[in-house]
Design a protein that fits this description.
By secondary structure, this protein is mostly helical. The chain has helices at 7-22, 27-44, 53-57, 62-65, 79-89, 99-105. It has two domains: 1-62, no CATH class; 73-108, no CATH class. α1 runs antiparallel to α2 (27-44).
């Protein structure tokens, strides 16, 4: 963690690192994931001196996104992921929609 970070960010770092380790990530990778996540959250909250544009302009924080971008590849999120998001947003007619229609309905 960078010097001068708050106790909250230290706890957040430890929590993310432990979670990654429990999921089987090697120690170094778990530390990297935790550091990147915490640094991005610090940038979004204005706690860091420098920040990338994507850190600041991303509409959803990493915890809110909940892995929506993970394993995206060429296909993007699966139909089931899109359906779950449509259900959460209350989009009607979602059960009969295919992947392309769900993508359009969600405005992606």
């Amino acid at each position: 963690m960078p010097q001068g970070s708050s106790a909250k960010r230290e706890r957040q770092y430890q929590h993310i690192k432990e979670g990654a380790r429990k999921r089987g990530a090697p120690k170094g990778r778990a530390e990297e994931i935790a550091a990147r996540t915490v640094n991005k959250e610090r940038a979004r909250a204005g706690e860091s001196k420098t920040a990338s544009r994507t850190s600041i302009r991303d509409p959803k924080s990493a915890p809110q996104r909940g892995g929506l971008r993970s394993h995206r590849g060429a296909q993007g999120p699966t139909r089931d992921q899109l359906y779950a998001e449509a259900k959460k947003r209350g989009i009607s007619g979602r059960s009969s929609m295919n992947k392309q229609e769900l993508t359009h309905a969600l405005g992606r």
